[in-house]
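Researcher: Next entry in the queue.
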Amino acid sequence: MDNINVDGKSFEAHTIRTTNASMLIINGKKGMLACGYIKVETADKLGDALAIVTGVNSYDDMLSRPIVAVSASAKALGIKEGMSGRQALAIFA
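Model: Structure for this entry, 93 residues:
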C-alpha cells in the first residue's frame, strides 16, 4: 500500500500484480477509484461506492482518465461517467 496525495487530500493506493496485468485501486473515505479489473456489479452487491477507469498503468493515469462505469452508491454521491478520476476522488475524499 502507498499513501498518495491528490490535490491536498490523502488516499490509500494499492497495486496488485497478476501474471498479465496489475489491479490498481485508490481508496478514499467515501469510495474508491479502480481499474477495469474490478467490477461494478460486485460493488453494487456490497453497497460500495466505486468508479472505474480503463486503459491505465499508473495512479497518474487513473487521475486523468474518464470514468467509464459507476456503482449505484457512487452515483448517489454525484459521480458520473465521463468525469475524470481526479474529479471522482475529490468526491470520494
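Model: The longest helix spans residues 85-92.
Researcher: Noted, moving on.
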